[in-house]
Amino acid sequence: MIDFSQIDKTIHEKGRLSIMTLLASRVEPWPFQDLKAELDMSDGNLITHLRTLEKAGFIAGEKFTGDGRPQTLYTLNKEGRKAFEQYLSILAQILDLGK
């Protein structure tokens, strides 16, 4: 039987699941502006979700300054990837049970 209590509530929220999915989709870091454009989120909404994921230890943000505007790049860290894979595994179990 599926242990539904193992569903990570931090990841399960739609905005955070979207962010985790994008970050897991490629090795290179995602600039804040690219995440914002891809997810069609406001700055405040995206920042709130990113902070929640950083606080959970799932992602890391690194600020870069240069000639242009400062930029923050986000990556999924090792703990975040493990949590995301576990989350997907539980979803796969749910899908299999529902067939």
UniProtKB/TrEMBL annotation:
<protein>
    <submittedName>
        <fullName>Transcriptional regulator</fullName>
    </submittedName>
</protein>
<feature type="domain" description="Winged helix DNA-binding">
    <location>
        <begin position="16"/>
        <end position="95"/>
    </location>
</feature>
<dbReference type="InterPro" id="IPR036390">
    <property type="entry name" value="WH_DNA-bd_sf"/>
</dbReference>
<dbReference type="Pfam" id="PF13601">
    <property type="entry name" value="HTH_34"/>
</dbReference>
<dbReference type="InterPro" id="IPR011991">
    <property type="entry name" value="ArsR-like_HTH"/>
</dbReference>
<dbReference type="InterPro" id="IPR036388">
    <property type="entry name" value="WH-like_DNA-bd_sf"/>
</dbReference>
<dbReference type="InterPro" id="IPR027395">
    <property type="entry name" value="WH_DNA-bd_dom"/>
</dbReference>
<dbReference type="GO" id="GO:0006355">
    <property type="term" value="P:regulation of DNA-templated transcription"/>
</dbReference>
